[in-house]
């Protein structure tokens, strides 16, 4: 198979970005008998050639999309560094702190690769390769051209050193993921007190057009499905804020709430009331 690039990590984002691309990839879930078949099916549905080792995935490719969980971003760079060819673009698309990206960059650049700081600025569904992405670092221009060549349609170059694009993503997540956590905390408490409808109506009256029931339904859905991954991302946000010296008290609470709901392992039901009931039942 003539491939244009490789994936390291092939979760929701990898599958969303892969459609129709000439690519191969590796995901460590293929090493685990408990998750292997499901992950092989993910590769097959996307038409991506599955590789049994990182070395097989990285051999001879000119570009790599790294899309692992936040806690594995640096480990992925460490594993890949001795395996990539000189000049390979390493597009680090993980949601991690600027310092984490700079540490990964040192590994990739030290091995002769070309590291690119990439921030994905929206959910990958339904936009897929129309999702807005920021690219930064000394190889941002080449990375932007590569991404456009494989079908990305909303790519913006960010000036400044490696970590600048990540800073934008991390600081934005304070608000986006924090609002999810606050919404969950508010509506779970309102439900427990038996005042859910009154609280919702009051919020809608305060923020006309807010549709707080719909927002809470969506936010709980995202937290139930992705809470553990979001918690890992928000730990990187805590690192970002602490490095800036601006404080991270609210974000630490976001980590706790995201992890607590994600750890329940619930499949989201349709509708806010059903989601609240499922969380209540799982936490009794």
From TrEMBL:
<dbReference type="InterPro" id="IPR015814">
    <property type="entry name" value="Pgluconate_DH_NAD-bd_C"/>
</dbReference>
<dbReference type="InterPro" id="IPR036291">
    <property type="entry name" value="NAD(P)-bd_dom_sf"/>
</dbReference>
<feature type="domain" description="6-phosphogluconate dehydrogenase NADP-binding">
    <location>
        <begin position="5"/>
        <end position="140"/>
    </location>
</feature>
<dbReference type="InterPro" id="IPR008927">
    <property type="entry name" value="6-PGluconate_DH-like_C_sf"/>
</dbReference>
<feature type="active site">
    <location>
        <position position="169"/>
    </location>
</feature>
<dbReference type="InterPro" id="IPR015815">
    <property type="entry name" value="HIBADH-related"/>
</dbReference>
<keyword id="KW-0560">Oxidoreductase</keyword>
<dbReference type="Pfam" id="PF09130">
    <property type="entry name" value="DUF1932"/>
</dbReference>
<dbReference type="GO" id="GO:0016491">
    <property type="term" value="F:oxidoreductase activity"/>
</dbReference>
<dbReference type="Pfam" id="PF03446">
    <property type="entry name" value="NAD_binding_2"/>
</dbReference>
<dbReference type="GO" id="GO:0050661">
    <property type="term" value="F:NADP binding"/>
</dbReference>
<dbReference type="InterPro" id="IPR006115">
    <property type="entry name" value="6PGDH_NADP-bd"/>
</dbReference>
<dbReference type="InterPro" id="IPR051265">
    <property type="entry name" value="HIBADH-related_NP60_sf"/>
</dbReference>
<feature type="domain" description="Phosphogluconate dehydrogenase NAD-binding putative C-terminal">
    <location>
        <begin position="190"/>
        <end position="260"/>
    </location>
</feature>
<dbReference type="InterPro" id="IPR013328">
    <property type="entry name" value="6PGD_dom2"/>
</dbReference>
<protein>
    <submittedName>
        <fullName>NAD(P)-dependent oxidoreductase</fullName>
    </submittedName>
</protein>
């Amino acid at each position: 198979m003539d491939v244009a690039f490789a994936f390291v990590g092939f979760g929701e984002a990898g599958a969303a970005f892969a459609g129709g691309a000439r690519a191969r990839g590796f995901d460590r879930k293929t090493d685990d008998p408990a998750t292997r078949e499901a992950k092989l099916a993910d590769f097959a549905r996307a038409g991506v050639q599955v590789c049994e080792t990182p070395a097989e995935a990285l051999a001879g490719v000119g570009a790599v999309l790294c899309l692992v969980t936040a806690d594995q971003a640096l480990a992925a760079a460490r594993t890949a560094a001795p395996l990539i060819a000189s000049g390979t673009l390493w597009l680090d698309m993980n949601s991690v702190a600027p310092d984490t990206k700079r540490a990964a960059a040192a590994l990739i650049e030290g091995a002769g690769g070309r590291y690119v700081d990439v921030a994905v600025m929206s959910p990958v569904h339904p936009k897929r390769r129309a999702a807005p992405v920021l690219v930064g670092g000394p190889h941002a221009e080449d990375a932007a051209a590569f991404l456009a060549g494989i079908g990305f349609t909303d790519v913006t170059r960010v000036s400044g050193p490696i970590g600048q694009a990540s800073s934008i993503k991390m600081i934005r997540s304070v608000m986006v993921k924090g609002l999810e956590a606050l919404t969950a905390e508010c509506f779970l408490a309102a439900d427990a007190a038996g005042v859910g409808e009154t609280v919702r109506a009051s919020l809608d009256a305060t923020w006309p057009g807010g549709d707080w029931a719909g927002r809470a339904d969506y936010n709980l859905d995202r937290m139930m499905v992705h809470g553990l991954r979001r918690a890992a991302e928000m730990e990187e946000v805590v690192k970002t804020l602490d490095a800036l010296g601006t404080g991270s008290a609210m974000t630490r609470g976001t980590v706790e709430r995201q992890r607590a709901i994600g750890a329940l392992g619930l499949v989201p039901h349709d509708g806010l009331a059903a989601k609240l009931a499922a969380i209540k039942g799982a936490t009794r």
